[in-house]
Specification:
The structure is a homodimer of 205-residue chains. Chain A is α+β, with helices and mostly antiparallel strands and 205 residues long. Chain A has a single domain, classed as NADH Oxidase (3-Layer(aba) Sandwich). Helix content of chain A is 40%, strand content 16%. The longest helix of chain A is centred in the middle third of the chain and has 22 residues. Chain A is globular. Chains A and B meet through helix 1, helix 2, helix 3, strand 1 and helix 8 of A and helix 1, helix 2, helix 3, strand 1 and helix 8 of B. Strand 5 of chain A pairs parallel with strand 1 of chain B. Chains A, B: One of its GO terms (molecular function) is oxidoreductase activity. Chains A, B: Keywords: Flavoprotein, FMN, NADP, Oxidoreductase. Chains A, B: This is 3-hydroxypropanoate dehydrogenase. Chains A, B: It comes from Actinomadura namibiensis.
Chain lengths: 205, 205
């Protein structure tokens, strides 16, 4: 599907098939089959990617897995028009959110730093930190969806405040992305866009 | 090293050894051996993770791979004191940056959207978009470092403006993270901190 990259393949420990599954052959899907995504699969994805590192082990990413017909009907009006048809075709859609009160879990998840919760409670940069680390976890999540043999369809075109009110009202969670999940349907792929060359993105000093 | 998770393992297509390599057994290293990380490895990591999706295929992440003794000496004073010894022990450290002018590449990387560059040039949310998508790519990068059989040591404790002036002055790049890369040295691991349970982080509706 993509140009093979034998040098890359050989320089990495990860099995070449896994490289393809997670990165080189994986694609953003724009249509899905009706095949459902079960609870066990959702749990397995989360239980894999939760091990990825975050600052202070804060793990601010939260997921609302929108799957029932009722919940899906509530989600669609808050998406950009161009994102509705593909989302309607997906068997499951993650609303990915950042928990701006992630510090409440620090005594449990970062137990050696006694004052971390209180210091973070008073930190005006806490929401930015929650969003930044949840975005890193979104990277892990997309890899994890692919690890499950499923296609991910991450989207930035949505009404964040509308989704917040619809699904997260009364919580400290703020939506940062919406990601369709499922098996790719007919005409799921747009032509693959080029990536920046090594020399355009990396300098060794 | 971690509790095995047979249900997770079985519910995913990715080989269990690869699940361990990338997530379950991979750890944030806090000390490194002197074994160098060569150009070929740096290139292979980038050429794998560049395929991960970003909004408008904007790919705002840029990397400065700090490796020479001179460059390392320039980096250390800008790190939080607690991050200096481990960074001094690492054979290579990525300064991970977001290109706030990523839109200049849109005609090449998002060619079907004719007006994208100009629209983004006038978009006051462009820097936030660059930082958000570079953070997603940072998630891919950490996975890619582990795919190379190396340990990653991501850090948030640094003087961003100091690093910007030292390594990125006169460019539209802003640092978002610093990540040590290498083979784990003696006493590289802190005790592993717990992760949030599925029920704490995910709701299915």
């Amino acid at each position: 599907m993509t140009a093979t990259a034998p040098e890359t393949t050989r320089a990495l420990d990860l099995d070449p098939d896994a490289q393809d599954l997670l990165f080189r052959e994986a694609r953003t899907a724009n249509a899905f089959t009706g095949e459902p995504v079960g609870d066990e699969r959702v749990r397995a994805i989360y239980e894999l990617v939760r091990w990825g590192p975050t600052a202070m082990n804060g793990q601010p990413m939260r997921l609302v897995a929108v799957r029932s017909p009722e919940a899906r009907a509530r989600l669609l009006p808050h998406l950009a028009e161009g994102n509705r048809a593909k989302t309607a075709s997906a068997p499951l859609t993650f609303v990915v959110a950042a928990d701006t009160d992630f510090h409440e879990h620090l005594p449990a998840v970062f137990p050696h730093a006694a004052g971390a919760r209180d210091a973070m409670a008073a930190n005006p940069g806490r929401e930015a930190m929650a969003r930044f680390n949840a975005a890193i976890q979104l990277g892990y999540l997309i890899v994890g969806i692919r690890a499950a043999g499923l296609a991910a369809g991450p989207m930035a075109g949505f009404d964040a405040e509308g989704i917040r009110r619809e699904f997260l009202d009364g919580t400290p969670l703020v939506p940062i992305a919406v990601v369709n999940v499922g098996h790719p349907g007919p005409d799921a792929w747009f032509p693959r866009n080029p990536r920046l060359a090594f020399e355009q993105a990396v300098a060794i000093v």
